[in-house]
Amino acid sequence: MIEANAQINNYTYSYNIKTFMTKSTFIHSPELHHFLNTVLETNRTMNLTSVRDPQQAWNKHIIDSLQGLQTGLFDNPARVIDIGTGAGFPGIPLALEKPELQMTLLDSTAKKCAFLESYIQNQNLTNRIKVLLGRAEEWGHSHLHRAQYDVAITRALGSFSEVCELTLPFVKKGGHAILWRGKDAPAETQQGVKVLSTLCARLVSCESYQLPGHELDYHLVVLRKAKSLPGRYPRKVGVPKKEPLE
Ligand code: SAH
Asked: What is the mean pLDDT of residues 148-157?
């Protein structure tokens, strides 16, 4: 588990990430390969990902998704929601690696949800992976989903402020959000202190990692929800993006 607030020993953490990455580069989990192949195959007729090369897709989608394991937040059975999951990243690789997770995949694009639903049914995964079609701004107010998850995860959904507003409403008090962010995450988290306070969360950690074949640093940002959110969040559809909290 990443230590709360710690001036984490970056060296140790990066070392772990590197070890993990090297190992996982050689993972030959048939389920992970089958899922990626299905995405790439479907991508010929439906736009699911711009990454078409299988090795690049393995790194960018599978290895990147599995970085979330480093947080330790998936080591125990947990209810997890992936917000803006697209073709199922990072939610599906994490669910395939950790069968004890109850994973919900949320996306506002019907054809992506239909693809995910069909994959999950074909693989007999319906007992532990669910698909939810719609906007986070709306589902975040439903009693079935608001404050119901141990962990909310999200990758490539929007600005720091936007993803905080869209993910934190789903998290239980004391639960966590994990944001897959790019190279600017350290600055984003520093500038986002007030946003986090408005959304009743605090920063646990912001750790960098690298992906094979990519020069840039990526970051996993872990947030902890300290208490219930005011009922007005998330704001109406489109507002978190158009008028980001400051
Ligand atoms: N997480 C995936 C996809 C990122 S693209 C990945 O990293 O590969 C962003 C996805 O979020 C798109 O599939 C889009 O349909 C979805 N999305 C955007 N805004 C959303 C919202 N407000 N609620 C739910 N899904 C949203």
From this structure: 98
Q: Mean pLDDT over residues 45-67, rounded?
A: 93
Mutate to test the pocket of ligand 1, among 64, 108, 115 (most ligand atoms within 8 A of CB): 108
In a domain, 96, yes or no: yes
- What per-residue confidence (pLDDT) applies to 95? 97
Which atom, in ligand 1's list, is nearest to the CA of 85? 1
Domain count of the fold of the chain: 1
In a domain, 238, yes or no: no
Q: State which residues form the domain around 27.
A: 10-227
Taking 50 as the threshold, does the pLDDT of residue 237 lie above it? yes
Query: Ligand 1: residues whose CB is within 6 Å?
Result: 84-86, 89, 106-109, 112, 135-137, 155-157, 166
Counting from 1 in the atom list of ligand 1, the atom nearest the Cα of 166 is 22
The rounded Å distance from CA 8 to ligand 1 centre is 31
- Per-residue pLDDT, averaged over 78-97, amounts to 97
Residue 27 — very low, low, confident or very high, per pLDDT cuts 50/70/90?
A: low
Cβ atoms of residues 2 and 8 within 8 Å: yes
**Residue 29 confidence class, pLDDT cut points 50, 70, 90:** confident
pTM: 0.91
* CATH code, 96: 3.40.50.150
From ligand 1's centre to the CA of 6, what distance in Å? 31
140 domain residue, yes or no = yes
Q: Is 62 within the bounds of a domain?
A: yes
Residue 85 neighbours by CB under 8 Å, 6+ apart: 91, 92, 105, 106, 107, 112, 116
